[in-house]
Specification:
The complex is a heterotrimer.
Chain A lengths: L1 H12 L11 H4 L16 E7 L5 E7 L1 H4 L4 E5 L1 H4 L6 E3 L5 E3 L5 E2 L5 E7 L2 H10 L1 E6 L37 E8 L1 H9 L3 E9 L11 E7 L4 E6 L4 H12 L6 E4 L15 H13 L3 E4 L2 H7 L2 E2 L2 E9 L5 E11 L28 E9 L6 E2 L8 H19 L3 H8 L8 E2 L5 E2 L4 H12 L1 H13 L3 E10 L11 E2 L2 E2 L2 E7 L5 E5 L8 H13 L6 E5 L16 H28 L6 E4 L2 E4 L2 E7 H7 L13 E7 L8 E10 L6 E11 L6 H20 L31 E4 L17 H18 L13 H10 L6
Parallel strand pairs in A: 1-14, 12-13, 15-19, 17-18, 26-27, 33-34
Antiparallel strand pairs in A: 1-7, 2-6, 2-8, 3-7, 4-5, 9-18, 10-16, 11-12, 11-14, 16-17, 20-21, 22-32, 23-24, 25-26, 25-31, 28-29, 29-30, 32-33
Helix pairs in contact in A: 10-18, 12-13, 14-15, 15-16, 17-18
Chain B lengths: L6 E3 L4 H11 L3 E4 L5 H6 L7 E4 L9 E4 L2 E5 L4 H5 L2 H6 L1 H8 L4 H6 L2 H6 L7 H7 L3 E6 L2 E6 H4 E3 L2 E2 L6 E8 L5 E8 L9 E10 L2 E10 L6 E2 L1 H7 L6 H13 L11 H24 L1
Parallel strand pairs in B: 1-3, 2-3
Antiparallel strand pairs in B: 4-5, 5-10, 6-7, 6-10, 8-9, 11-12, 12-13, 13-14
Helix pairs in contact in B: 10-11, 11-12
Chain C lengths: L4 E7 L2 E7 L5 H8 L18 E4 L2 E4 L12 E3 L12 H8 L9 H14 L5 H7 L11 H19 L19
Parallel strand pairs in C: 1-5
Antiparallel strand pairs in C: 1-2, 3-4, 3-5
The chains are: A alpha+beta, B alpha+beta, C alpha+beta.
């Protein structure tokens, strides 16, 4: 009977581990979300940006006169209008500067040149079409391999005199930084002495996160109070507030950034874009709210892209396929400005996780970053800060090694995995993996798909000239930026926060420094706190995104919410429970040590009918009936500085059938096992896996942001940029193991980017595997039917 | 996202629509379903000063059979084609083709006449109509003329339609009993234009081809009638060699544009592959 | 400026009048003039479907319709799906099956699914995927959206069969499919 009661109470809590339905759904299913383009303020004007048609050109002159004559147009802002407030340039989150409105030259096609402010978006569009700009075209650099040629055109004349841009010495005007990690000498030696080495060039093409809602803002400066309010599609409202304060000179306490409902982020909504800055300036100048919402083509063409890493992977191994050394390098095309999020000490993000799930004694990696005449960016798109690039390289290279040695692709992984007893394991590139258990995860997946049966089937199909591929990906992710000693952005440490207030009638409100864009934080944080406090998650309100209310945090990107803010929530809740225990002891007139916690109450050991629920304690906390000297109220705030990153992992298998006459690939099966430690809401995790795998499918099979040799976009609308529909998207099978993080208060790790990081190489591995028997060791993405057919043609198997 | 401004006219008869075209001149464009024209106007690639909307002209609706000819009003939507019991029974190629156009929302608005008259080599109906030996009724202030589909398309966005003329009706001879047809369309995803597509109708007698029609989508400036390929099949037994030869001849007339769907070599090869698949499926359907 | 026109239509059962330029897109009229911000804008090339509304019993991308073309039309948006305080079976199912994450595609998805189930009350999974192929989603990977449509189909079928026994709300605008 007592157990039934406990179960009933646990059910009421709807806490950790429960697949409870989401609290945020109520408004979304009714179309009552508040996205930034839904915001309407009195007197609001609309801004439309005029953009460069050229990838590289001098601006000889701008004629605003026709635009100003368009009915409804109020102003046309150019760099000259921003100069008096020194805002024509702005610092980036990557330690560089970026033009807000182009001053004298443009460096990428569709770079911002002017903003037309008008009474509504129709007049603004007419105005933008009427601005006349006189350009003198310059030769453009599109291929990063030519960026550092001796005679290469100089892209960044504004920093020509600078020998460093935030990350060490530059060796060429188009060079940004060179970053390296590991033991070069030791690694080179291991390669020189290795029984077997493999080397492969691999491309991570430029792609774009393309959330369904584009970027935008409503900036509203109140001339009377001096208060600036900006409704913003931002994944990191506090960081933006600090940057805006630094840029504008307005005291940070008078700046309010509001991230409301955001229609997907995927890293696209972390940077500060010129459109935001100009809208803010325009609002300050006009004294009315200014709305700027970009179009889809603007989004794909100018906001934070992802990847564009041109890699060389090398592994050294013994004849049994045991990897002795790893040597990876990347030429990184950052576009015209280094604008992407990086921790100051990690300009190539977390690329050094590239030793993956394997025990590799020697490793060295190096990234050379260059400018080209393309849009700025690089870190985005569910990448966990360049982890997509790193994991792609190691997961593809281990397959390359397997093929060279004729070792089965699952077996070679088994031989190289970090073993369970080795955790916590410090890689040869310096990361300490907190926990992992790779072998059972792989075995579970291989059994589920009948791997041996699939290999038999493949052999039989090959004998009949059919192409079938089996792809494996056993990845380790690194998320939860991060320990402030290592991780900061513009100096600000990447801690995060939670502020909980329990009210007298026993419900609570918690505010955090992260910013959901669909990840379900209103539900999952409530579940964490519900279990800690014994209050129903239905009665725990979660707020994020309003910088006037929420404690300081670094926002939601790189799967950091659960590892950092989730930890803060648990720790803050535990502070409250510790205080509640003291109050309960006082109310029950026993010692603290005489109490035990059960679901939602403290019970006296040996006398369980004597108990106080958290609700009762909450009321008491607001009365005089407290231990002498105890402060009233039942609140706590925690700023959590994580001791380490967290390292979720997974094992994925993908089965493909390729039509050699058209190059089309059918994904027959995709089985994904993820381990993110403690699982807060399995339903929400599964949804994240589906979404991340679908984006992985899109990247691997069809996405690219292509340019011609003059830097002109060749496919920057949804006509060409591949967003799969429900028809192309495969069916996903999900599974899990649970290996908690030893350092996280609830043992949880982040998860939302794992399927993307692990999924992309799984697709690639499957496609290459389909051709492995014909001697193919690598094929670059995207694996469009066109490109796959070209491989078939090269092998002489494309015709009937 | 925002078109340039224009004046809007919504006539209720064909005669009124033609009158408006005369009155407004070159700067007026007809709008049918709007799902080719409005996207172009929103990007300001097209900037007509006047739109003449055919959406309220009842004369342009309807699907019926008259004396061995199927007559389809030009403003019939793709969805109406798909749901037509007459077409499902007597002209299944058109139903199959319409289902492969765009997506469900676009099919509720896009019209067969608009798809034909726009002159976009990526549109599907032109090749379907050529394969069906269809003809188009063009009406002007001075009367009507009927132009065969195979003579209607002159170049990219360039058709036989003269200024002041409106495509009012599509006429399709009811395919004979024993005809099988297929539209094989290779595309990157649902909603995309064809990388290459082939529309094939075959009238068979046993294993021998009596009549063949083959037309290709999006591998030239216009839809392409593969006349040599058709002739190569006539009277022949339909074996692998004959099908391969027909595909080779179809490929020989291809002149595609390189774009993100593929280069010239790929698109041409795919036209051949789609021709082969369409022939095989059409033959199998003819056998039923 | 082109002469503005008065356009009268029904929006979620209520008559409305707007005065618009010919070039004004229906999506802008709904969002800006009529305060119905449920339908969203996700692109400008008519691909994404976030703007989908139900117009004269057809699923239509409201970004590719001129408001002046809507004289006398009967338009339903996501805001009209809930009737008398009761959610439509699709709205319930989308939440129950976790068929939404950021919520941006959701109004278009639900509005399109509504018409899909009118066209075909018992669709297969393949028919659902084809039937929803005009609506893009970046968050869910579609799998739970398919489950939501399937679940809603079952709820609606049960409601048709035993309207007195089942508490599920009867949709106000259920009709037979449009005849050819």
């Amino acid at each position: 009977m007592a157990d039934m009661d406990v179960l009933e109470r646990q059910k009421k809590i709807q806490g950790l581990g429960v697949s409870r339905l989401r609290k945020e759904d109520a408004r979304f299913i009714r179309g009552k979300g508040t996205y930034v383009d839904d915001i309407k303020l009195p007197g609001m004007l609309f801004g439309s940006i005029v953009r460069s048609p050229f990838a590289h050109a001098r601006i000889r002159g701008i004629d605003k006169s026709k635009a100003l004559a368009v009915p409804g147009v109020v102003a046309v802002l150019t760099a000259d209008d921003l100069k008096p407030v020194k805002l024509h340039w702005m610092p980036t989150l990557g330690g560089d500067v970026q033009a807000v409105l182009a001053d004298q030259k443009v460096c990428f096609q569709m770079q911002e040149v002017a903003m037309v402010i008008a009474s509504d978006r129709y007049a603004a569009a007419d105005g933008a079409a009427a601005v006349e700009v006189d350009y003198e075209e310059l030769p453009a650099i599109v291929d990063p391999h030519f960026a550092m040629a001796p005679d290469a055109p100089v892209i960044r004349e504004d920093i020509a005199g600078k020998d460093e841009v935030g990350h060490g010495k530059r060796t060429h005007p188009n060079h940004i930084f060179t970053w390296e990690a590991g033991d070069k000498a030791g690694t080179d030696e291991a390669f020189d002495n290795a029984a077997v080495t493999v080397k492969q060039e691999m491309l991570n093409p430029r792609v774009h996160p393309c959330p369904l809602e584009t970027c935008g803002c409503v900036a509203s400066f109140d001339k009377v109070t001096g208060q600036l309010t900006v409704y913003l599609t931002s994944q990191a409202p506090h960081l933006v507030r600090t940057v805006v304060a630094m840029l504008s000179g307005i005291p940070e306490s008078k700046i309010r950034i509001i991230g409301g409902d955001i229609g997907g982020g995927f890293g696209n909504k972390v940077p500060v874009y010129p459109g935001y800055v100009v809208a803010i300036v325009a609002s300050i100048v006009t004294g009315v709210p200014i709305k700027w919402i970009e179009s889809r083509i603007e989004n794909i063409s100018t906001t934070g892209f992802a990847r564009d890493y041109h890699c060389v992977g090398e592994l050294a191994a013994d004849n049994d396929g045991r990897i002795k050394a790893l040597r990876f390098s990347a030429l990184a095309d950052h576009g015209a400005f280094n604008s992407h999020v990086s921790a100051t000490k990690l300009p190539a993000g977390l690329f050094s996780i590239c030793t993956g799930s394997y025990d590799i004694p020697r490793a060295y990696c190096r990234v050379d970053a260059v400018y080209t005449n393309k849009a700025p960016g690089g870190v985005a798109y569910r990448c966990s800060l360049r982890v997509t690039e790193a994991v792609y390289l190691i997961e593809r290279m281990i397959d390359v090694l397997a093929q060279k040695l004729g070792i089965d692709k699952a077996e070679i992984r088994r031989r190289n995995f970090v073993k369970a007893e080795q955790f916590p394991y410090t890689t040869s590139l310096g990361w300490t993996l907190d926990s992992g258990n790779y072998h059972p995860a792989l075995e579970k997946v291989l059994k589920a798909v009948d791997y041996e049966g699939l290999r038999r089937e493949q052999a039989e199909k090959r004998s009949r000239g059919e192409l079938m591929g089996i792809g494996i990906s056993t990845f380790t992710e690194i998320v939860g930026a991060g320990p402030t000693k290592v991780c900061d952005i513009l100096g600000i440490g990447l801690f995060d926060s939670c502020d909980i207030r329990v009210n007298p009638t026993g419900s609570a409100i918690a505010r955090l420094g992260t910013m959901s864009q669909g990840q379900g934080h209103a539900t999952t944080y409530a579940q964490i706190i519900a279990t800690e406090l014994g209050l129903s998650s239905d009665e725990i309100q979660i707020e994020e995104g309003d910088t006037d209310k929420a404690p300081y945090g670094a926002g939601t990107w790189g799967s950091r919410s659960t590892p950092v803010a989730g930890a803060a929530a648990a720790v803050a809740a535990r502070k409250i429970r510790a205080k509640a225990q003291k109050i309960a002891a006082h109310l029950l007139e026993v010692g603290e040590g005489d109490l035990e916690w059960e679901v939602d109450r403290f019970k006296v050991k040996g006398n369980p009918s004597q108990a106080k629920t958290m609700k009762e304690i909450a009321m008491a906390a607001h009365t005089s009936n407290l231990p002498p000297g105890m402060e009233k109220g039942l609140d706590a705030t925690e700023y959590y500085d994580p001791p380490n990153m967290t390292f979720p992992f997974g094992a994925y298998v993908c089965v493909v059938d390729i039509d050699r006459f058209t190059g089309e690939t059918k994904v027959r099966r995709f089985y994904a096992l993820d381990d993110c430690g403690t699982r807060i809401n399995p339903m929400i995790i599964e949804g994240q896996i589906h979404g991340g795998l679908t984006e992985a499918f899109a990247v691997a099979m069809g996405q690219a942001v292509p340019f011609d040799e003059n830097g002109n976009h060749l496919g920057n609308s949804l006509m060409d940029y591949f967003l799969p529909t429900a028809v192309e998207t495969p069916h996903w099978e999900t599974d899990h193991t649970v290996t908690p993080s030893p350092h996280h208060p609830i043992g949880a790790k982040g998860v939302a980017e794992s399927p993307h990081v692990g999924g992309i190489p799984c697709f690639s591995n499957a496609i290459v595997d389909a051709f492995a028997h014909l001697g193919v060791t690598h094929m670059d993405m995207p694996h469009t039917s066109y490109r796959v057919w070209q491989q078939c043609k090269a092998l002489g198997i494309s015709a009937r | 996202m925002i078109p340039r401004e224009f004046e809007y006219h919504a006539p209720t008869t064909v005669a009124d629509a033609i009158g408006l075209l005369h009155q407004l001149g070159e700067d007026a464009k007809l709008i049918a379903g709007g799902h080719s024209l409005l996207p172009m106007m929103k990007l300001r690639f097209a900037q007509p000063s006047h739109l003449v909307d055919l959406g309220r002209v009842p004369e342009l609706k309807g699907i019926r059979e008259e004396g061995g000819t199927i007559r389809i009003g030009a403003m019939t939507t793709e969805a109406e084609l798909i749901n037509s019991p007459l077409l499902q029974a007597k002209c299944p190629l058109l139903v199959e083709g319409a289902k492969l156009i765009a997506d469900p929302q676009v099919r509720y608005k896009g019209t067969v006449g608009g798809d034909i008259a726009h002159g976009d080599p990526g549109n599907d109906h032109p090749a379907l109509m050529i394969a069906l030996r269809a003809s188009f009724v063009l009406r002007s202030a001075t009367g009507e003329r009927v132009v065969a589909a195979e003579n209607f398309f002159r170049g990219t966005y360039d058709t036989e339609l003269r200024a002041g003329e409106i495509l009012t009706e599509i006429r399709i001879p009811v395919p004979a009993i024993g005809t099988g047809a297929c539209y094989a369309k290779l595309k990157r995803k649902v909603g995309d234009f064809a990388t290459a597509a082939a529309a094939v109708t075959l009238r068979m007698q046993g294993n021998k081809v009596q009549e063949a029609a083959i037309a290709l989508t999006n591998v030239g400036a216009t839809p392409l009638k593969a006349t040599a390929a058709e002739e190569s099949l006539r009277g022949k037994a339909l074996d692998d060699a004959a099908i391969a030869e027909a595909a080779r001849l179809a490929m020989s007339i291809c002149d595609p544009v390189q774009d993100q769907r593929g280069d010239v070599e790929y698109k041409t090869a795919m036209a051949g592959e789609m021709t082969q698949r369409a022939i095989r499926t059409a033959a199998a359907r003819a056998a039923n | 400026m082109a002469a503005k026109q008065t356009v009268s239509f029904k929006l979620n059962g209520k008559p409305v009048d707007v005065v618009v330029e010919p070039r004004e897109l229906l999506i802008h009229t709904l969002r800006e003039r009529l305060a119905h911000t449920g339908p969203h804008i996700g692109c400008e090339t008519s691909h994404c479907g976030a703007c989908t509304v139900d117009l004269d019993r057809m699923s239509v991308k409201s970004c590719t319709v001129l408001t002046v073309q809507c004289q006398g039309a009967d338009i339903v948006t996501i805001e009209g799906m809930e009737q008398g305080g009761a959610l439509h079976a699709l709205q319930e199912a989308f939440s129950e099956q976790h068929g939404l994450q950021c919520g941006y595609c959701t109004p278009g998805m639900v509005t399109r699914a509504y018409r899909l189930l009118q066209e075909n009350p018992d669709p297969t999974e393949e028919e659902i995927r084809m039937g929803m192929s005009g609506n893009l989603c970046r968050c869910t990977g579609y799998q739970n959206i398919v489950k939501a449509v399937q679940a809603a189909a079952l709820k609606l079928a049960a409601a048709r069969e035993a309207p007195r026994k089942v508490a599920a709300p009867a949709p106000a605008r259920e009709e037979t499919p449009t005849p050819a």
